[in-house]
Amino acid sequence: MVPVVEELRRLVAFPTVSNRPLTELAAHLATRAEEAGFRVERFEPGEAGKCTVIASIGPSEGDGAGLVVSGHMDVVPTEGQPWSSDPFVVTERDGKLFGRGTADMKGFLAAVCLAVARIPRDAFRRELVLVWTHDEEVGCLGSAQLAARWQGRPLPRACWIGEPTGLRVLRMHPGHVGAELEVVGQAAHSSRPDLGRNAIVAASRVVAQAAALGAELAASPVDDLPEMDHPVVAFNVAEIQGGVALNVVPDHCRIKLGYRPLPGRDPHVPWEELRRRVGGEVDGCPVHGRILRVTPSMLTPAGTALEGLLRTHADDPRLGAATFATDGGNLAKMGMQPLIFGPGAIEVAHKADEFVPAADLVRAVDIAEDVIRRACC
Ligand SMILES: [Zn+2]
User: Fold this and answer.
1) Ligand 1 centroid vs 259 CA: distance in angstroms?
2) Each residue of 126-184: pLDDT tens digit?
3) pLDDT at residue 73, as a whole number
4) Do 305 and 286 share a domain, yes or no?
5) How far is the CA of 19 from the centre of ligand 1 (A)?
6) Closest by CA position to 106, among listed 82, 88, 83, 119
7) Residue 270 reports pLDDT greater than 90
8) Which among 42, 118, 284, 353 would be 20 to 30 A from 78, CA to CA?
9) Within this chain, do residues 10 and 148 fall inside the same structural domain, yes or no?
10) How far is the CA of 343 from the centre of ligand 1 (A)?
């Protein structure tokens, strides 16, 4: 069997669904790196079964030279999806390698493992650092921990994240903000609604305000992000919860919403605008709000040296934007300039029968070897 397919088979067999331990996969990748002569550090967030693997080779000057290659080790769940074959056993049909994570993004991890093994350890003149993260799929949690708590040396500035892009270079993506609004009413027997304050009815006005803001944002494209097909803030009223019984005036209603701040923009502005419009009280019901999570956007300047290297291998020479968030926003906070470029298509990720084209995976090994040699040797 082709070595990279063999490696992909091993990686996919670890069922590293987000929120589950991934120590075995991390140990495997650490061993692969050590076999290729890397020094391995494990960055642990303090949660059992979680770690980010940081493997480096070559002289570390702390001057930002060299290259970071990054990917996440976790995958999305498969429950309830109509898979044609076992999602954790790589199956080849019609030149496609099916399995959970083949595109997003264990194919890239396998390609990098093979590529680094081809390069003699004494060939490195600049540092290469592999950063394999956890819990990317549930809000880029591993990279957020790393960005918040990394006390080590500065890592190289150039950063390649191998998310599936169909081998096109993407230099930006929106972030993701999750927030919650809680409307507090007053309970009463439903026969005497005049004695209560209905939190659901008040919340319906809050939802209307949020929807109106979402519609305004959708109609307000910016003109300085030409790589984005739809350069607007995507806004979603996502969950609503309230009420206990038919004969009770509800005293609580909770609304969760999310939006995707544009690359390089202050992620808090839409939330602050919504809070201003809703105010502290609706129909006599206090409204409390809180941000649940901020996944930062990414915006890397055009024209970096790494961009030049990756674009020589791109199927589509145009620079693009991802619609989805990645670890890149957090890694940028560490001083990196991430670019996203990898085999497989985001359109097949997260679904049943996810696959990576076998030919693209084989090519990805050659691409990774070439890019790493040019950046670090
Ligand atoms: Zn991914």
Assistant:
1) 19
2) 999 999 999 999 999 999 999 999 988 899 999 999 999 999 999 999 999 999 999 99
3) 98
4) no
5) 15
6) 88
7) yes
8) 42
9) yes
10) 11
360 shares a domain with 211: no
What CATH number does the domain containing 317 carry?
Answer: 3.40.630.10
| Boundaries of domain holding 119 | 3-173+297-376
- What single-letter amino acid sits at 293? R
Cis peptide before 105, with omega less than 30 degrees from 0?
yes
User: Same domain, yes or no, for 126 and 199?
Assistant: no
The alpha carbon of 137 and the centre of ligand 1 are apart by a number of angstroms equal to 7
Residues 264 and 151 in one domain: no
The label of the residue with tokens 């060939």 reads 123
CA separation, residue 49 to residues 42, 110, 242 (Å): 12, 21, 35
Do residues 19 and 127 share a domain?
A: yes
61 has a pLDDT exceeding 90: no
How many whole angstroms from 365 Cα to the centroid of ligand 1? 18
The reported pLDDT for the residue numbered 153 is 86
Overall number of domains in the chain: 2
- Cα(196) to centroid of ligand 1, in Å? 47
- For residue 74, the CA-to-ligand 1 centroid distance in Å is 8
d(CA 306, CA 317): 14
Model pTM score: 0.92
How big is the chain, counted in residues?
Answer: 377
